[in-house]
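Typical record was shown:
=====
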Amino acid sequence: MTDTIRLALIGCGRQMGQNLVPFLQRLQGHQIVACVDDDLTLAHAMQARTGAARAVARVEELDLGAVDAAILAVPPQPSSALTRYLVERGISCFVEKPAGESTVVLAGLNELVRHSTAQVQVGFNFRYAETLQQLHSLTHRIRATPSTVSINFFSRHPETPQWGVENTVEAWLRQNGVHALDLARWFQPAPISKIDVHAIHRDMNHFFATILLRHTDGSLSVLRVGNHTMKFVVEVSVEGADGSTFTAPSLEQVLLEMDAGTPSRALLHSTRNLDHGWARSGFGPELEAFLAACRSREFGSSDRPSIADALEASKICDQVMEQLNFDPVQQIFVIDRAVAVG
């Protein structure tokens, strides 16, 4: 592979146009050679925007000998099928989450990648947000012993079923809230031994849930998630056994709230967001990491989300949904039980 990575963009809709290409165009060392979308109008518009040589409706129309890697931003079902097609032909992929429509599909894809020379990075962009990177680094020591990570993740969308998932709550969890599950696994990598879920609802399409993950090392992850909000919210805090509490109340600051049990409120990190969102969102750094991995052919970093990470997050989704049984008569979700893992 040459130093210049030849890229195919697959899925030329809103996510590609608004959140990926603007950051991709700020990076060096790659060339966009093809744009693919079953809506050829979108493919041609992206071709004009990026200067790609080709715009086609189907990935099968590509000359893969002229492509080193692909970036995919399509719904879960075509995403998993397209990723399989490309990996089987030796093309490494950056795939927007959740990367597949079910745990079974992701397990099969993970097995394929394990035995392939091609690699897959999944777009869990919040791992690359500068503020959360700082929080992760600053709490490395206290997370080495049992600790508690609390994550608030609220997003209005989706408010209706989408992408083949008929239940709005499950669609939200698998296709958006999965970010919170991935962050929990990143901050607390010890295996999960038990999951406990409690939820309240406004109606059948809007909910608030608290998810408690108990880890085998004694740590806890507490997730508060839902779509009962008008504002997008990401907050993460880490509480250590030494009485310290580090908090990212937004994607712009890290504070030391408690220092050995004493109120502190010290500002440890601040991002002024004058970089058009590069440091705040994580989209740019994750694409930069993907291109670097393609160039070096080294995808082994534990911080680089893989299909295996998407698979583990999907397993948590399965167990959360086991506890959320929807009663169509009362239009409520009934909490059954805590689920022991393993």
Summary: The mean pLDDT is 92. The chain has two domains: 5-126+289-306, 127-276+310-340. Residues 127 and 133 are 7 Å apart (CA to CA).
